[in-house]
Amino acid sequence: MTVPAGTAVTLESGGRSGDVAVALRGAAVTLGGQTVFSNVDLEVRRGEFVAVLGPNGAGKSTLMRTILGLVPLSAGSVRVLGHEPSETRSEIGYLPQRRSFDSETRIRGVDLVRLGLEGGRWGLPLAVTAGARARRRIERERVEEVISLAGAAAYATRPIGELSGGEQQRLLIAQALVRRPAVLILDEPLDSLDLPNQAIVAALVQRVCAVQGVAVLLVAHDVNPLLGYLDRVIYLAGGKALAGPVQEVITGPKLSELYGARIEVLRTSDGRLVVVGSPEAPHHHGHRH
Predict the structure, then answer these.
(1) pLDDT (tens digit, 9 = 90+) per residue, 48-83?
(2) 3-state DSSP call for residue 95?
(3) Is the pLDDT reported for residue 204 higher than 50?
(4) Which residues, at least 6 apart from 106, have a Cβ–Cβ distance to it below 8 Å?
(5) What string of DSSP letters covers 53-70?
(6) Is the pLDDT reported for residue 270 higher than 90?
(7) Up-side HSE of residue 115: CA atoms within 13 Å toward CB?
(8) What distances in angstroms separate CA 190 from CA 29, 54, 89, 255, one per listed residue?
(9) What is the pTM of this model?
(10) Are 15 and 45 in contact (CB under 8 A)?
């Protein structure tokens, strides 16, 4: 469904209300006097894998930062696990847009993941007591658990700078998971990865949803590496939103209405989607389909 000003769009799936991880109601964001998006109703449940799509500047990262409580709404409301985002940040795992590690970076992958445990810790290290030893054992086991879930055990003890982009990304996802978040936000984790590694990371994220019951919102330009793994998508463009299953959202008529120009969506023999047309906006997103 296309959402003109004053109309709401809802992204939801079956389940109890207690399963809702993220909920926006009539949400709008205005930055620098310009409306980024408006009148968005969004509901994402635990264990659901949702891709956030759209051209550059459409508001994808702004939407994620709103859920993190870093960008205020100009209208409407946002709740994470039933509370204000500022009250639940410790329960949100966040992987920002891709960081690159210099080949000389010597920190081991396992130590990078362990750093994810330090986010809520202040002050001097605790004395080595029986309680501290028990805590460290639990933390070590948790680090090993998420590294195993990410399929990164074979190279986790190597320096991060020696690893491939896909291997680094797996370890960064493990780091975002180590504090047992209920919501995981991944901002363009497939960017700069080759096609095989994009598929590997997409499968990993789906496994995280299934095994950990985490609600995942993944920002992407290209939906193709995610086909077969997603539950739903939300497509942002021109201050409007389009939401639902991939096969209902990424269609010629729906995108044409969203962009206000004729758009065609083709499916290749291998199942990939190709978006063809103008204006400029689909160029940023669709040419990679």
Answers:
(1) 999 999 888 889 999 999 999 999 999 999 999 999
(2) strand
(3) yes
(4) 159, 161
(5) E--TTSSHHHHHHHHTTS
(6) no
(7) 9
(8) 26, 15, 24, 23
(9) 0.82
(10) yes
Residue 5 lies in a domain: no
Separation of alpha carbons 143 and 26, rounded Å: 39
Q: How far apart are CA 91 and CA 69, in angstroms?
A: 12
* Identity of the amino acid at 247: Q
List strand residue ranges (DSSP E) for the chain, in order.
20-31, 34-45, 49-53, 75-80, 92-95, 183-187, 215-219, 232-237, 240-244, 263-267, 273-277
269: domain CATH number? Answer: 3.40.50.300
Burial class of 139 by CB neighbour count within 10 A (0 to 12, 13 to 18, 19+): middle
H helix count then E strand count, the chain: 8, 11
For residues 288 and 222, the answer to whether their CB atoms sit within 8 Å is yes
| pLDDT tens per residue across span 155-197 | 999 999 999 999 999 999 999 999 999 999 999 999 888 888 9
User: Is 2 inside a domain boundary?
Assistant: no
User: What's the length of the chain?
Assistant: 289
Domain extent, residue 134, equals 17-286
